[in-house]
Design goal:
By secondary structure, this protein is an alpha/beta fold. Helices cover 39% and strands 19% of the residues. A six-stranded mixed sheet has the order 1-2-4-3-5-6, with helices on both faces. Helix 1 links the parallel strand 3 (28-32) and strand 4 (54-58). Helix 2 packs across helix 3 (98-109) and helix 5 runs antiparallel to helix 7 (169-181). The protein is globular. The N and C termini lie far apart (41 Å).
Length: 197
């Protein structure tokens, strides 16, 4: 049986503080969130998976409660050090969208630390986005860089990729909460992630 409350805290990596939660016992399963979101997106998966696994979710650097990037780093290294800190190597990885991109990078960089890999609607390095996608993304960037982060967030939440999720009231509310809480940092700054494409 999983514990009643998750173990949570911050892991220090250089000058950064990475927020994490660990819930349940057994073989670790790590969930990586999508762009503009944070570890709260995995709330519905927490209890079911914790019945059989040790569930770990965390806010990637620059998102949620974790520190904004302030120095060169790699998301893959953050994850490796977090897993070592939690004594959770090797782990199953589940990544959505941007989280899938980083999960795949991690598996290619540190294969010995991965039990399995589940990619959901994953962004992929080297993939060329459609013209429509690029135009919509540039519009969001332009609005954010002009100083209207609220409008940029509104446009991101109204992106067609969220359309199916927005049909579910509880999911829609969670997405709105996370995106409204997103700092918008990545829209107006260059991320110093060493592997960022």
């Amino acid at each position: 049986m999983p514990q009643e409350r998750p173990i949570e805290g911050f892991f220090s990596r250089g000058s950064a503080q990475i927020y994490y939660q660990s819930y349940g016992q057994g073989v670790p399963v790590v969930f990586l969130h999508g762009f503009g979101l944070d570890s709260r997106m995995w709330e519905p998966q927490l209890e079911p998976f914790a019945q059989a696994f040790r569930v770990i979710r965390y806010d990637l650097r620059g998102y949620g409660r974790s520190s904004l990037p302030a120095e060169p780093y790699a998301q893959t290294d953050d994850l490796l050090w977090l897993l070592r800190y939690l004594d959770a190597v090797p782990a199953h990885l589940v990544g959505l969208s941007m989280g899938g991109r980083f999960a795949l990078r991690f598996a290619l960089t540190y294969p010995q630390a991965v039990r399995s890999l589940v990619l959901t609607d994953s962004a992929l390095d080297g993939y060329r986005w459609s013209v429509e996608w690029q135009e919509r993304w540039q519009e969001i960037l332009s609005v954010a860089r002009a100083g209207d982060l609220q409008e940029a967030k509104r446009r991101w939440l109204s992106h067609p990729l969220f359309a199916p999720a927005l049909e579910q009231p509880l999911v829609a509310a969670s997405l709105a909460t996370q995106i409204n809480g997103y700092s918008g940092w990545h829209w107006v700054n260059r991320d110093p992630d060493r592997l960022l494409s």
